[in-house]
Amino acid sequence: MASYLQRFDATAAAERWPLVRSWMFGEPLPFYDELRKQRPILVMPELTLATRFDDCTEILRQHDLFSVQLYEAKQGDYWMAQDDTAIHWREKSIMRAILDREDIPAIRTYVGEKAAELLAAAGGSMDAVAGLTRAVPLGLVQDWFGFTHISAEKLCKWSYWNQIDAFWNQPFDSIAWPDQNQIVIERKAVNIEMVAYLVGLVALREGEIKLGLGRHDPVSRLLRLSSSGGLKFDLPRVLLNSGGLLIGAVETTSHAAVNALDFLLHRPDDLAKARAAALSDDPAAIDGFVFEALRFRPAFPYFFRTCEQDTVLGRRSSCETPIAKGTTVLAVTHSAMFDPKALSNPDDVDPGRPQGNQFHFGLGLHECLGRAIGRVMIPEIVRQALRLNGLDVGPVDRKGGPVPESWQWHWN
């Protein structure tokens, strides 16, 4: 059988990206292995792929050279759609401050109790996406972040369409969607609802603070900072960043938890070890298994950037490749996490593997804001699921899209 690159080279230029995308989502690891060895920087008219660890690291660390310009059309003047700006640094610092790391152990306890409660109430059967992997982060948003007086269904819808449009509906995704504009319409419609809700929520929290009844949830903390007058952070910025808390918390968590569980459930030897860890007295014993599973099955196989000036990738190597200003570049971190130059025995599942050379939460200026929360929430959801007896699962149903939409479970 012809190799991937032989088939790629024999394909018309206009058809290469659809073919490559099918390999990235259908048979990624052997495809990436061939690219890293033979053509680590793959150039196509629509975009360029970088598959080695060093190139992915260079792209993600050099925000002045590889920007997040494609985010702007989806996220407006939210700080995540900016690179080295005053708004980015100020508001990211604010958000990091109000998401107290001291709360992380209590958040893990909450997640474990919430997941166990949902599983116990299900009576041995559930759609795990709606009933667990989305329901737990939605509970966190309501109970911990303070998004009260609103249904979980609406919160889920708001998070979903913003995530789909920002991360899965870029110009190079046109081959995956019959109508990209419809996704934009959905995102704009739900944002009208979300903003109306957030205006009411902020007004409620402001009233509570004035009455001395203020809570200590993130929205209330943002309002106290805003009202202090000590920094540039007015109410519109409070609203925008409050929305970011919701959008970032739900769909990515669900996607990662489903991918990790699905991977482990189809590998009997690794599953036995992971389940033993889940049943142990140490909640963190499962963590290494989960992040190894996500190395094999990441929620995001790449991070997209825009090249801001002519440069090269694969510098000082036989694969050095010019990258023109304006090029869309995918740092294929799924591949980078299997680069033998960066990881020992990358094809093995090693729960003791150091996390330093992995990209589960991004890298550089745009590393995930909720990294500390995600590092306990995702493994704890998996832990509670693996404690079930006789778990029998069907196939994950993505309904033709990029994220898990439904997953039928039964257990004793």
Describe the structure.
The longest helix is centred in the middle third of the chain and has 31 residues, at 180-210. This protein has a five-stranded mixed beta sheet with strand order 1-2-8-5-3, covered by helices on one side. A three-stranded antiparallel beta sheet has the order 4-10-9. Strands 6-7 form a two-stranded antiparallel sheet. It has helices at 4-9, 13-26, 28-38, 53-61, 72-75, 86-98, 104-122, 128-133, 135-143, 152-168, 180-210, 218-228, 235-249, 251-265, 268-279, 287-296, 333-336, 371-386, and strands spanning 41-43, 48-50, 66-67, 125-127, 303-307, 311-313, 321-323, 328-331, 392-393, 408-410. The chain contains 18 helices and ten strands. Helix 10 (152-168) crosses helix 11 (180-210), helix 14 (251-265) packs across helix 16 and helix 14 (251-265) crosses helix 18. With 412 residues, the protein is an alpha+beta fold. The protein starts with a helix and ends with a strand.
Number of helices: 18
The unreliable regions are none
Terminal residue distance: 45 Å
Shape: globular
The oligomeric state of the chains shown is single chain
**Beta-strand segment tally:** 10
Largest sheet features: 5 strands, mixed
Radius of gyration: 22 Å
Mean pLDDT: 96
Q: Biggest sheet: strands side by side, in what order?
A: 1-2-8-5-3
Q: Pairing-aware structural class of the strands and helices?
A: alpha+beta
Order of helices and strands: HHHEEHEHHHEHHHHHHHHHEEEEHHEE
Helix content: 40-55%
Strand percent estimate = 5-15%
